[in-house]
Structures are given as structure tokens and as C-alpha cells.
Write a structure and sequence with these properties.
This protein folds into two domains: 150 residues, Alpha-Beta Complex (Quinone Oxidoreductase, Chain A, domain 1), CATH 3.90.180; 136 residues, NAD(P)-binding Rossmann-like Domain (Rossmann fold), CATH 3.40.50. 32% of the residues lie in helices and 27% in strands. The strands form three sheets. Strands 3, 4, 5, 6, 7, 14 and 15 form a seven-stranded mixed β-sheet that branches. The chain has a six-stranded parallel β-sheet with strand order 10-9-8-11-12-13, sandwiched between helices. The longest helix is centred in the C-terminal third of the chain and has 16 residues. The mean pLDDT is 97. It binds NADP nicotinamide-adenine-dinucleotide phosphate.
């Protein structure tokens, strides 16, 4: 069996393919034959040693996977061999086979193929956490999404739309903006060719009820200036590399909220909450309200190219690795 390993921190090129022997299973864990793996922006940070989670090399990166259960620990009664599942991990999913705690593994419906399933956990889970538990988004409210054509961003466009909100998608090219409209955004803003601050004012003169920020930098600071009365700004990530400044006076004037979300941590502190979230999302998927977009599929051994492609900002939706 093969897995990709980081032996020293660096760029995607440090990933090395290695063979490994069958791992020992523990009684509360599952052995999964990995089918597909979701590639995330966070993988690039973990490989560099610049993420909240900082495993010491050697380690395998990767936060999510889809696959088939091939062995069950003695204490597990709620899973069966052959079941199709998704799993989430702090790192380690860039591999052909994995042992995972059962509480971080969730069943998927027959209607969902393995590639789609691998694109689902982090992107839709984070989007749902931000929109549902943190943002408490209501029907007809306005929701501005920064980095809206990325993995989390496009999932957020669909989830906010399914919640009945008026979605404003902000992304870095006209093509990406069009894709956001196809996935349910009512409006789009290209923040590389226009001033997002003025555009938001035109679209939502009373301000935005909820901002989901995957990008940081100037678009985030502009969005913060355009919050509605009691509006919420949720910081999800800083793909631009620039952490935005939040002015307390602006929060005071609008009686508004600045909130952080570390979804990955909820997955381990409160896996039941994550399970409920996936149940809600799977229902939306079965009702065809969510249409996950996989922009590109690479082989496992091509993960460095996959990460370079993600970092080049060419992709829309998710990038997936294939183990078959
Ligand atoms: N808090 C959490 O629990 C959590 C969970 C998942 C992800 N995240 C974070 O959320 C962010 C998005 O993650 P993702 O997996 O959706 O990533 P992604 O698919 O790569 O999307 C990121 C988007 O950010 C935009 N961007 C702006 N400046 C960029 C730059 N310098 N380099 C790369 N992209 C840039 C790109 O869109 P444009 O080209 O259109 O600008 C891109 O589509 C990341 O910061 C990630 O770490 C946080």
C-alpha cells in the first residue's frame, strides 16, 4: 500500500510516495480502503508547518476521504464491512488505506458517488457550520461570501441559497463569478476588477446580514464596513495570506458581531454535532439542492500538482485525489 508523506516541511514538492505495511487496528476503530481524498487549502499549510495543527514529520497530510469499510474494531457495532463512508481527520488521509476512530466516520447514501463524497465533508461541513450554527442565517437575509468559487465558498453559496437567503458571491474572475451564479448566487462581484465596497452598497443598501470570509485582506475589511444592523462577520480563513483588521467602533455602530469558526476542531470536540450537520446536508443533497462541483481529479501520486493547481487559483469547487 502507498501513502504520501512529508519528511520535512516545505511546498507541495516535498510530498514523497512511500510503501507501508498493514496497520494494526484498535477496538474502537475502522479500517477503510480509501477511494478518494479531498484536497484542501489547509493541506498546503500543514505541509509547510504553518497550520494550527503542526504534526512533526514524517506525517501524511489530508483532512478528508471517502472509502469502504474493510475491517471493524471489536467494540464497534454501528458499522458493517462493505459500507460506503466519509471520514475526517486532523491529518493523514493522503493514503490508500487508513485506520480511523469510528466517531469520525459517517455513512453516505447510495446516491452519492465516491468522488462527490470526498468533496463533501470539509467544504459543506464548514459552510453549514458557518451558516447554520454560527451565522443563524434566516430566509431572505443577505449573505456575502468571499472566495465564493473555492471549495468552501461554492458549498457556502449552495447552502445559503438552500436556506432561502439572497446570496452575493465575491470571487476573483468573471468566469468564477458566473459559476457562482450557476450554483445559486443572486449577485456576484469580481473583487479583482471592481471595488467590492461600492458594489455591496449598490446590491444591499442596508448592509449585509452575514459575511463568510475565506479570503481575508482588503475584501474582508470592505465587507466589515458594510455589515447590516446586527450583522455577523464570520472569519473562516485567510487564503490571501492577509489577516484582516476588525475595528471595534464599526462593530459598535452596527451592533454587529465578529465571529471565528474553526470547524475542523468541532469535528473532534463534538463529532455528534458534525454528524447532525452531515445528516442535514445529505438531505439537501438528496433533494438536489446541493450540486457539489469537482473541478479536477488527480491521482494520489499527483497530489503535489493538485496542490499547485489549487494555489494557482485556477480551480473552481473542489480538487479530488483518486486512489483506484
Ligand atoms: N476555519 C475552518 O474550519 C476552515 C475550514 C475549511 C477551510 N478553511 C480555510 O478557508 C479558506 C478556503 O479554503 P478552501 O479549501 O475552500 O480553499 P480553495 O478551494 O483554494 O479556495 C480559496 C479561494 O480563496 C481565493 N484566494 C484569494 N487569494 C488567494 C491566494 N493568495 N491564494 C489562493 N487562493 C486565494 C481563491 O479565489 P479567487 O481566485 O476567486 O480569489 C480561492 O478560490 C482557506 O484559508 C482554508 O484554510 C477554514
Amino acid at each position: 500500500m502507498k501513502r504520501l508523506v512529508v519528511n520535512k516541511y516545505g511546498g507541495p514538492e516535498v510530498l514523497q510516495l512511500e510503501n507501508f505495511d498493514k496497520l494494526k487496528i484498535e477496538e474502537s476503530k475502522l479500517r477503510i480502503k480509501v477511494k478518494n481524498i479531498g484536497v484542501n487549502f489547509a493541506d498546503s499549510l500543514i505541509i509547510k508547518g504553518r497550520y494550527q495543527e503542526r504534526p512533526r514529520p514524517p506525517f501524511s497530510p489530508g483532512l478528508e476521504l471517502s472509502g469502504e469499510i474493510i475491517e471493524i474494531g471489536k467494540k464497534i457495532s454501528n458499522f458493517q464491512i462493505g459500507e460506503r463512508v466519509i471520514g475526517i481527520a486532523k491529518y493523514g488521509t493522503y493514503t490508500e488505506e487508513i485506520i480511523m476512530p469510528a466517531e469520525n466516520v459517517y455513512k453516505i447514501p447510495d446516491e452519492m458517488d465516491y468522488v462527490t463524497a470526498a468533496s463533501f465533508p470539509v467544504a459543506y461541513g464548514t459552510a453549514h457550520g458557518a451558516i447554520s450554527w454560527k451565522g443563524k442565517l434566516k430566509k431572505k437575509q443577505t449573505c456575502l461570501i468571499l472566495g465564493a468559487a473555492g471549495g468552501v465558498g461554492l458549498a457556502a453559496v449552495e447552502v445559503a441559497n438552500a436556506f432561502g437567503a439572497k446570496v452575493i458571491a465575491a470571487a476573483g474572475s468573471d468566469n468564477k463569478c458566473e459559476i457562482c451564479i450557476e450554483h445559486g448566487a443572486a449577485y456576484s462581484i469580481n473583487y479583482n476588477t471592481s471595488k467590492i465596497r461600492h458594489q455591496i452598497k449598490e446590491i444591499a443598501p442596508n448592509g449585509v446580514d452575514l459575511v463568510l470570509d475565506m479570503v481575508g485582506g482588503e475584501p474582508a475589511e470592505d465587507a466589515l464596513k458594510n455589515l447590516a444592523w446586527e450583522g455577523k462577520y464570520i472569519s473562516v480563513g485567510f487564503a490571501s495570506g492577509i489577516i484582516p483588521k476588525i475595528s471595534a467602533n464599526r462593530l459598535l455602530l452596527k451592533s454587529s458581531y465578529a465571529i471565528g469558526l474553526y470547524w475542523g476542531q468541532y469535528a473532534f470536540i463534538n463529532p455528534t454535532l458534525i454528524g447532525q450537520s452531515f445528516d442535514d446536508l445529505i438531505q439537501l443533497y438528496l433533494q438536489k439542492k446541493l450540486k457539489p462541483l469537482v473541478g479536477k481529479v488527480f491521482k494520489l501520486e499527483e497530489a503535489a500538482f493538485a496542490l499547485d493547481y489549487l494555489l494557482s487559483r485556477k480551480n473552481t469547487g473542489k480538487i479530488i485525489l483518486n486512489c483506484n
